[in-house]
Amino acid sequence: MLINIQVGDVLEVAANVLISTANPWLNLSGGVNGAILSAVGPTIQEELHTYLHCQGISAVPVGTVVQSEAGNLPFECILHAVAIDPFYDSSVELVRETIVAGLDLAINAGAKTISTPTLATGYGPMSIADFGTAVAPLANEPKFDEISLTIVVRSEEHRSELFEAISAARVSHRR
């Protein structure tokens, strides 16, 4: 998998699929989710709450990825990835598992290009470097060879931090 790092607004980075951060209640309440709600209006929020209602649950388990329409955003769909628990805790392992679930779902949807913010680093406890550590080993997974992942960060400082973490994780993973 080719990993790109870009500074900007994740909602403006065109890709086949956006893997967006989500909370267990699938509420579009802040951060990237709040931006989705502002950009698209209530339709995606209604779709996510309908999903919960149809499943007979009020929240999804940690690690779940739920697909929705993308509205007027430059994606074929949005994958809402729950990489935090109900107390907004997370780990490198949980983020990696959640990203893998999202990438698998994206591939099954026919995606070749995927964009994502750094999951669990806003309201969650993870650092940008932790996210890099979680994602780096996936670059060498054969099942992801045909896709590219663009990780979108908000500053040049975050881009540098993420690049260094991914580079360091790749070196230590090869040992």
UniProtKB/TrEMBL annotation:
The keyword Hydrolase applies. Coiled coil: none annotated. InterPro entries: Macro_dom, Macro_dom-like. SMART domains: A1pp (SM00506). Keywords: Hydrolase. The lineage of its organism: Bacteria, Pseudomonadati, Planctomycetota, Planctomycetia, Pirellulales. Transmembrane segments: none annotated. One of its GO terms (molecular function) is hydrolase activity. This is O-acetyl-ADP-ribose deacetylase. Pfam families: Macro. Its EC number is 3.5.1.-. Residues 1-171 form the Macro domain. The keyword Electron transport does not apply.
